[in-house]
Amino acid sequence: MSLTKVSLSNVVLKQYRYKLKAYTGVFMALMVVQVIGILLSIAGGGSGSFSNNVYTLDVTVSSSSLVIVLTMIWAFMNAILMTTKSYREDDFTFVSNRLSYNLSNMVFLLTACIIGAATALLSTGVIRILFYLIHDVDIFLTLTYQVAIGDYFAGALATLLYILLAATAGYLVGMMTQFNKRLIILLPVILVGLNYVVQSNANPGFVNILKFYFMEYSFTVFLLKAIVTILIGSGLAILLSNRLEVR
Amino acid sequence: MKVIECEGLVKTYGSINALDRITFSIEENTITGLIGRNGAGKTTLLKVIAGFWRETEGRVKVFERSPFNNLEVSMNSIFVDDMMSFTYTLNLKEVLTEAQAFYPNWDAKLAEGLLEYFNFNPRLVHQSLSKGKRSTFNMIVGLAAKCPLTIFDEPTTGMDAAVRKDFYRALLKDYLFSPRTIIISSHHLDEMEDILEDILLVDEGKKVLQLPVDEFKEYAVTLSGKTAIVMQILEDKDVIYKRNIDLDSCSVVVRNNFSHESVKRLGINVSPVTPSDLCVYLTNQAKGGIDDVFNQSKSV
Prior knowledge:
By secondary structure, chain A is mainly α. Chain A contains nine helices and two strands; from the N terminus they run ααββααααααα. Chain B has helices spanning 42-50, 71-75, 92-102, 108-117, 131-144, 161-177, 189-192, 213-217, 227-233, 260-265, 275-282, 290-299; strands spanning 2-13, 16-27, 31-35, 57-62, 77-80, 149-153, 181-185, 198-203, 206-212, 220-226, 239-243, 249-255, 269-272.
């Protein structure tokens, strides 16, 4: 029987297709998470009241921020799940090596995150309509002018990058714990411990890390930070798992 | 062509050598039985060959490539055991369709035929199957993949006698139809000695013997007769195992490398040893048998 030649991209593509069919649970979870997010957004919503003794102005603000945050948590958890033994064994039942396993996981996560980001952004519309129907609103204000199409695009890309950052973090953490089970306990200890050590008045510890990504006002710089972080995280995960023994 | 070559292969877990400098090779298009006691290192050896585990020391080549992390080795080999994992979101039929996408030689007709023959409900998921059914399904995947290197690690776990018989027959038929290199590790040597061509006997991570089955069957004989006479002629023989020794009569398993006539003339009965018995004798760690454990505890 003659040997079959293979290319990495060919196998990655096959594994990716397989994952789209097999990991339907990921998308079910996304739906549940976003429906919860939408319901919570309608129930909550920031509100304020202004008065100058003549007029009283009640303002209720609705946004899809909560849905996006929940989607980030979903991405983080799913990325961890995909590094677990049972998912890995599914892959190595058929043709795979560690690189193709990682690459197909990442392409799948990218796909899932794009879908997650798109539906999270689209939930804005759903939230507005439901908000209008449920709450007693007199005047419904939305930003229409002054927001160029480019701004919408930037917002969508930023949303996607935040979700991808969460997925990358999950994937790396997941791989680290697969590499050594003791890291499940050690990682939080190290993170909290380091935070305690570097904390001071001038440097409030990990708030800085969050600031690093969430408080960046320049879109280009944020783009750079996010993409570089995602690439480094993915590269580390591939390196870590390249020696992993399977099955 | 040699499909598998191992040279001084070592695999360690902590301080234990699961494989201890094992050296052997397996030719293309042969069926080899990998035989050994529990914990002899069979599964470890097969997983290193399949590229799942990394060797600690020594050299292992599959299709002249190092198997660990090698996509070509993964593409051209399949490892079947009772721990094979299939996603719970796809049913049996869909799993077979997915497998077809991965393996270029996949025989869909064979897979479907076997699925029907063994009375599988194609809409079930793998996790809901019984142990024996699961093994049977894994076997179907292993056969239908038609990989140039097909590895079965204890494929008959949980199968009943009838299914085991069918499995051996299906394996042999399929092998004749499309020859490939097959390795089977199993405890049921007596059941499969008819389909095997070679036997690779391992013990404590080392190779004990690698012989064609025909030679293996002739490898040793049992001498039985009066103790006094048998003991006399043992001097120039390689004794493998002594059993049933008492004052009156005894039987001893020895290497079959002498003329039987001279022994028979002394009134000693020469009888063949079945391969499965021989494997047990060759890999017996402690002298004596399980009876000694009970005899000892009684005498204390």
